[in-house]
Amino acid sequence: MANTFSTQRAKLNTLPLTLTDGNREFDSRVKVNLDVIPYAAQAAADTITCQSLPKGATPVAFILNTSDTTGTATLAIGDGTTPTYFSGAGAVLTTPDTPTHRLKTSVAGTKLTAETPVVITVGVAPLPSAGAGKQLVVHTLYTLD
Predict the structure, then answer these.
(1) Closest by alpha carbon to 140, among 96, 93, 79, 83?
(2) What pLDDT score does 6 carry?
(3) Hey, how many other C-beta atoms are within 10 angstroms of the C-beta on 61?
(4) CA–CA separation, 63 vs 36, rounded Å?
(5) Which of 18, 57, 61, 69 could form a disulfide with 142 if both were Cys (CB 3.0 to 4.6 A apart)?
(6) From start to end of the chain, where are the E strands?
(7) Is 113:39 a contact under the CB 8 Å cutoff?
(8) CB atoms near residue 49 (< 10 Å)
(9) Which pTM was predicted?
(10) Is the peptide bond before 59 cis (omega within 30 degrees of 0)?
(11) What is the pLDDT of residue 9?
(12) Domains of the chain: which residue ranges?
C-alpha cells in the first residue's frame, strides 16, 4: 500500500528543518472573526461587509451557517475588489444549522499583503426575509503569527 505525505509533512521529514520568518505552515495559532448578519431579504447583487482581515493574515477557512435555508440564493466571498476572491458563488446554505466551509485552494496559505475586506455578494435570488433569530453566521479563520 502506497503512502503520500502532505507537502508540510514531507518538510518535517527533512531535518534539520529551517522555518523562515512568517511561515504559517507549522504550529500556527488560528484566530477567528465572528460576523452575524440578520436576514432582511437582501437582494441578488447586494453585498454584506464583514470584518476585515489584517495585513499579514493567512486565510484558513470561512465557515458559513444559516438559521434558515437560503433556497437558490448563492453567496460569493470576495475582497471588496474581486467578488469571488476567497470563494466562488455557490448555493451553499440549503440546510439550516449545517456549517459549510469555503476557501479557494488558490488563496489557502497565501499571506495577505494589506488589510483586506471580507465582502459577501448575494447572487441569483434574495436571502430569507427578516424574522426573529433568522440570520447568517460567518466565522473567518486565519493565522497571524
Answers:
(1) 79
(2) 78
(3) 16
(4) 12
(5) 57
(6) 30-38, 47-53, 58-66, 74-78, 87-90, 100-102, 116-123, 135-143
(7) no
(8) 12
(9) 0.85
(10) no
(11) 73
(12) 29-143
How far apart CA 81 and CA 91 sit, in angstroms, is 21
Q: Please, are residues 103 and 86 in contact by the beta-carbon 8 Å criterion?
A: yes
Q: Which cell is 126 given?
A: 434574495
pLDDT per residue as tens digits for the range 11-70: 777 766 665 555 556 667 899 999 999 999 999 999 999 999 999 999 999 999 999 999
Reported as a pLDDT band with limits 50, 70 and 90, residue 7 is confident
Summarised one tens digit per residue, pLDDT across range 109-131 is 889 999 999 999 999 999 999 99
Q: Which CATH architecture has domain 29-143?
A: Sandwich (2.60)
Residues forming a β-bridge with 121: 47, 76
83-119 burial, b at 16+ Cβ within 10 Å, e below that, comes to bebbbebeebbeeeeeebebbeeeeeeeebeeebebb
